[in-house]
Write a structure and sequence with these properties.
mainly alpha; 0% strand
Amino acid sequence: MMQQEDPSDIEQLEQPPSTVAQMLDGCGIDADENLMKTPTELQLANLLSNLLKYGVLIASAVVLVGGILYLIRHGAEPAGYGVFRGEPSEFRSPAGVLSAVLLGSRRGIIQLGLLLLIATPIVRVLISLVAFVLRREFIYALVTFLVLASLIYSLVGAYY
């Protein structure tokens, strides 16, 4: 009578694991608990994802509308690349851009779209900071605050 042998370790390694739990078996990681996010974390992740997605879409739409309006009015004019002209003073600050938009400036609409594009990740960092403080994760809140301070300084540091 032939005795049936157990499969060797090499044969077991050659067979791919059928589930994630089998792949992580023996790794010291609990696949069911440690890799799952709480409902609050999922809500925050969805909020931040939607903020970035819709912020970029809205900013792009504003730039597109401003660009179309600008081209309707100035599209046939020849471009003067021989002389460099800097940005007009009205577009050098967010308040100037807003007042230009209220006056109906097409370039102001384009600049507003660019300001919205810049503001989108800043708002994301601000929301993350508030979420970390509310959840009492102060190390993450400190790092997020430093990132927010760096972003704000890079924007307003030129004015002072």
